[in-house]
């Protein structure tokens, strides 16, 4: 079946849909040996040989879904001109290359998802999904209620007002307070900029939740694979209970009408 090239490339786990478009425009993609630079171009992943930088796509690569507790001092890009450590350096012996779903700043820590399933990553990052992400922020000194309320109501940033957020005081210490900030948007450095806008100085920033998924007890630098139910639930794909899964060989059940004829529909 013919599909758009950028969709095939992202589904093969090379990179996101948007970055796949850049690969095409840069002339790095070829179909059956012919370089394709037009964005609307289509190919048949079952028949055509599609290459990126001369390497053939693995269409049916095993799908991997990973939750990493990112330590501070790691970068979520796949390469870095300054040679800083990459989050993918923490994932040893992966059978396939994975890439981060969205980004966390170099010094932000906590829950980071990585996958080689471009379609799944696109679903998660699509603004229509509005997945809520929750951060714990250690701020210098004491927080006052008015600062929390302003962040919760929305603050003016250089790229516009922020949407309403859920902001609470979590813990009060001698030198620092911890607050929690839950947002749906995913703007660049958003939590840091929201704090700056109400004169709060961020000492530490940690993502502790992504939708229904909690960071849990993973230590910094450790990762785990998501369960099938977690993968489906996050992308809002209905979870089919084991008991209702039909094996391919199981015959379809027929509805027998009172006249004795089969409707051909499943029960
Ligand atoms: N908000 C930020 O400011 N930084 C991150 O890394 C994530 C959210």
Structure, described:
The chain has 267 residues and is of the alpha+beta class. The protein has a domain of 54 residues: Structural Genomics Hypothetical 15.5 Kd Protein In mrcA-pckA Intergenic Region, Chain A, CATH 3.10.290. The chain is built from 6 helices and 17 strands. The strands form 4 sheets. Strands 7, 8, 9, 10, 13, 14, 15, 16 and 17 form a 9-stranded mixed sheet that branches. Strand 11 and strand 12 form a beta hairpin. Helix 1 packs across helix 2. The two termini are 30 Å apart. Uracil binds next to helix 5.
Brief sketch in words of this structure:
The protein is an alpha+beta fold and 267 residues long.
Small molecules bound in the structure, each named once = uracil
Shape: elongated
Q: What is the β-strand count? A: 17
Which bin fits the share of residues in helices?
10-25%
| Gyration radius over CA | 23 Å
CATH class category of the domain at 3-56: Alpha Beta
Which stretches are poorly predicted, pLDDT < 50 over at least 5 residues?
Answer: 245-267
Span of the ends, CA to CA: 30 Å
CATH architecture of the domain at 3-56: Roll
Mean pLDDT: 88
Say what the CATH topology of the domain at 3-56 is.
Answer: Structural Genomics Hypothetical 15.5 Kd Protein In mrcA-pckA Intergenic Region, Chain A
Number of helices: 6
Going by CATH, the homologous superfamily of the domain at 3-56 would be: RNA-binding S4 domain
Order of secondary-structure elements? EHHEEEEEEEEHEHEEEEHEEEH
Q: Which structural class fits the helix and strand makeup? A: alpha+beta
Q: Quick one: biggest sheet? A: 9 strands, mixed
Beta-strand residue percentage: 25-35%
